[in-house]
Amino acid sequence: MTARAASRPVGSVTRGTTHPNRLRRMDRWIAAAHGAELRRAADPVAVDLGYGAAPWTAVELLHRLRRVAPRTRVVGVEIDPARVAAAEPYAREGLAFRRGGFEIPLPQRPLLVRAANVLRQYDEGEVAAVWERLCARLAPATGTSRGGLLVEGTCDEIGRRHVWVALGPEGPRTVTFATRLGSLDRPSDLAERLPKALIHRNVPGEPVHAFLRDFDRAWAAAAPYASYGARQRWLRAVGDLTADWPVADGPARWRQGEVTVRWEALAPRG
User: Fold this and answer.
1) Can you name the residues that pair with 115 across neighbouring β-strands?
2) Residue 6: its pLDDT value, please?
3) d(CA 29, CA 152)
4) Are 84 and 78 in contact (CB under 8 A)?
5) Could you list the pLDDT tens digit for every one of the 270 residues in the chain?
6) How far apart are CA 141 and CA 144, in angstroms?
7) Would the CA dihedral through 9, 71, 162, 245 be positive or negative?
8) Is the separation of the CB atoms in 107 and 137 below 8 Å?
9) Taking the CA of residue 40 as centre, how many other CA atoms within 13 Å lie in the half-sphere pointing to its CB?
10) What confidence tens digit (pLDDT) does each residue in 37-59 have?
């Protein structure tokens, strides 16, 4: 292998679709779930991997993370050199852009990698290897830290519906479903936003299918609460789910239109 081949970014150019505020729900969750880790670090670095044709999501990530961890730096990483060049005018203190892919071409291991709407365009069989590569680049766990966090998932074009997997250096931890409650007909509407590792597993016999089925049943049973608003109905439905599923968060997050479940409960069979 030549030196030039060895330095080639790992991955493929994606469609690059992006919109301002598209990832606000994901960012809000990251700030709540990982903010303490970012604050404890001396030099916390976060990566917006595959930010797309415009740098809005990287700019917004810096703004939102600095609210909870003011020393955080963000690096937007894109495999398309034209997108990197287009983003350069937006670089400033704490925000940089670099060409690269799944190898994460940084001199230090980041404390956060966010990869939104990237693996959706890959084959399901490629996901495990990409996860393994990205998790290996995260800051390692120590006696006082769980290490870096990879957040990989999918959302719709304007950020109303998201599903993402959170992974640490050791591998997948949780799956989070997040939605604008006023736009939700039933929880299984989120199935179309399942990340690549799960979207083809929404079939009978698979755990994620059973979870969404039970969620729809809990949502239907909570219909009387709809008179108090969609949030109250969601709170009741998620509360009922905790009897049979390992929900990893509580009412403070549920009120945001979220629910987080342990990965092992939804992991594909086989």
Assistant:
1) 152
2) 45
3) 13
4) yes
5) 333 334 788 877 776 677 789 999 999 999 999 999 999 999 999 999 999 999 999 999 999 999 999 999 999 999 999 999 999 999 999 999 999 999 999 999 999 999 999 998 899 999 999 999 999 999 999 998 999 999 999 999 999 999 999 999 999 999 999 999 999 999 999 999 999 999 999 999 999 999 999 999 999 999 999 999 999 999 999 999 999 999 999 999 999 999 999 999 999 997
6) 8
7) positive
8) no
9) 14
10) 999 999 999 999 999 999 999 99
pLDDT digits (tens, 9 = 90+) for 169-217: 999 999 999 999 999 999 999 999 999 999 999 999 999 999 999 999 9
Find the angle CA(134)-CA(136)-CA(140) to the nearest 5 degrees: 120
**CA of residue 250 relative to chain centroid, distance:** 19
In terms of Cα–Cα distance, which of 96, 76, 100 is closest to 23?
76
